[in-house]
Amino acid sequence: MKTAVSTAPGRSGPSVHPPPSPQLAAPRHVRRVSLIDRAALRLGLALITWGRRPLELESRERRARHAEQYLARLERERLALRWQGLNLPPR
Q: Structural domain boundaries of the chain?
């Protein structure tokens, strides 16, 4: 049997916790964020957003090419699934 037994005194019984003090049950004062802190947060988020903007806009031709490539890929996948259904043995 692999049972570990504590040899320290007072560790053999269930632990007894004292009742919570009434001070912990009292509502705490909530600190509001100041106007300056909120403005600084918004400015920081705006700077991060501005810093992550693309350096050059995507042209219409490139967007159209992406859409055509997406549709062509969907068509290839559809044809591959059709070919598999017609040519491969059933499972």
A: 62-91
